[in-house]
Amino acid sequence: MRFRLFVICLFMLIPFGSLHASEFLQGSDCEISEEEVVNGTLYAICRTLTVAGEVRGDILGAAVNVTISGQVQGSTMIAAGKLEVSGEIAEDVIFFGGILHITSDATLKSPLSTVYSAALSTQIDARVPGNVGAIGYQLLIYGTVGGNVDFSGTTLRIAAPIGGDVTASVGDRQSNGVGELQTLIQLVDSDVTLQPPGLIVLPEGWIGGTLRYRSPSEGEILGHVTTIVYERVIPDTAAIASQQDIGGAIGEYLRQVLREFLTLAIIGVVVVTLAPRSINGPISIIRYRTLTSIGLGLLIFILSFPMVLISILLSLLIILIISLLGVEQITLIITLVMVAINFSGAVMFYFIALFFSRALVATAIGRAALSRVYRPKGRLTDSYIYLLAGAFLLSLVIALPYIGTVVTGAAAFLGLGALVLNRQRLPKRQPAATQGVRAGIGRRPEIPQLPPPLESPPGPGTERLPDGFNWWQ
């Protein structure tokens, strides 16, 4: 539900009506100086974007680092590694990326100004008149929020008054394993520190409405909260481990094995039936280039998230440009086409990455496991046997607590990397002349047959040759 509301807010920024003017920036370092004024919407695709002047419209852009210290008469929708807002925003702040920091010098003018963020870290030090909606690792609220707060992630820290309700889903306060994420976020900004998981309302915090939160452990409530509704969440692995009935625990494990097996088997059978020969190359790479495939698959999976965001932003830019024509029917058609392309592309990629790749790994496992006990007959049934055996063995491990999650990710990355490596090593079609040269390497040259001579009287010295002798053969 939160994600759908987030997407709806994106499309609210699309100005399908008339636009007075606009400016498009692209390059390495883009800047709107203090003396500059942009009349209309500002579009930007840059490495760094600095807005110190005035934008009399919205800002729609993508960059590595964005700083807004000037005035924006509309909303901002930005995808970036880091966005720092210290200026004046008339309407909403919408952000995708790594770090969002709304400093204490920032001003959100509208009584309904809202902040929507999908980021690893979101920190709000200024007053937000409207609502705050965020997904990511942490949300740190040090400025007053006039409306509601909706958060889904790991860490929620409240140290300021909130006029409405707070709805949150957070992590376990007993866990403090943030070392890997801290290393990752320092690549973007070394000054940002990730807080331990869980919910904490500091003494400065004040919630005028109801606090509803879900977590494996209770939060630390030091400030004033009118009403608290806490729902304890027990992870699936912990639920299995805490069952006193051994038979029930085994039954749950077997049900998980069956679900994983059916998923891998159904997808694998479809692939083997439609393209039986296409899986041989990736399976060979899985066997002989395992570590390379895992590393490449992990890298591609990580890069897929910013690529999806960039694709969405480019689609929005196209829609905005088409909307300048003033033809609503064409704009609507282009919008539907872009939504269909982005949705279908993302679904196809993540289906291949999360399901199809694991089916390939299952087939490779089955082939390796049965290599000494099963003699292939060179028919399509061999692939089915390898697939079903490997899917069963892989499902036994995936259904295990803790280790199953690691194996699931490793199998997905391994299969995805093998698919990409196999795509890169496909032989290119050679020109006819080159094929002829390659075909002749290592072969004994054929002696050309000479044509028979024209009829002529026998020459001297041929009277004593045996009958039927032809020199041209």
pLDDT averaged residue by residue: 79
Distance N to C terminus: 86 Å
Low-confidence stretches: 1-21, 238-244, 428-442
Strand fraction: 25-35%
Q: Main sheet?
A: 14 strands, parallel
Silhouette: globular
> What is the quaternary state of this protein?
single chain
What is the overall number of helices?
Answer: 10
Structural class: alpha/beta
- SSE ordering: HEEEEEEEEEEEEEEEHEEEEHHHHHHHH
Write the layout of secondary structure elements.
Elements: H1 2-12, E1 22-32, E2 37-38, E3 41-51, E4 54-55, E5 59-68, E6 71-72, E7 76-85, E8 88-89, E9 93-102, E10 107-108, E11 115-124, E12 132-141, E13 149-158, E14 161-162, E15 166-169, H2 179-186, E16 198-201, E17 206-215, E18 220-221, E19 224-232, H3 236-242, H4 246-274, H5 280-288, H6 290-323, H7 328-369, H8 380-398, H9 403-424, H10 432-440
Helix pairs in contact: 4-7, 4-8, 5-7, 5-9, 6-7, 6-9, 7-8, 7-9
Keywords:
single chain, globular, 473 residues, alpha/beta
Q: What does this protein look like?
A:
The model is unreliable at 1-21, 238-244 and 428-442 (pLDDT under 50). Helix 4 runs antiparallel to helix 8, helix 6 packs across helix 9 (403-424) and helix 7 crosses helix 9 (403-424). The protein is an alpha/beta fold. The strands form two sheets. Strands 1, 3, 5, 7, 9, 11, 12, 13, 14, 15, 16, 17, 18 and 19 form a 14-stranded parallel sheet that branches. Strands 2-4-6-8-10 form a five-stranded parallel sheet, with no helix packed on it. The longest helix is centred in the last third of the chain and has 42 residues, at 328-369. It is 40% helix and 26% strand. The protein has helices spanning 2-12, 179-186, 236-242, 246-274, 280-288, 290-323, 328-369, 380-398, 403-424, 432-440; strands at 22-32, 37-38, 41-51, 54-55, 59-68, 71-72, 76-85, 88-89, 93-102, 107-108, 115-124, 132-141, 149-158, 161-162, 166-169, 198-201, 206-215, 220-221, 224-232. The protein folds into two domains: 2-235, no CATH class; 239-424, no CATH class. It starts with a helix and ends in a 33-residue tail after the last helix.
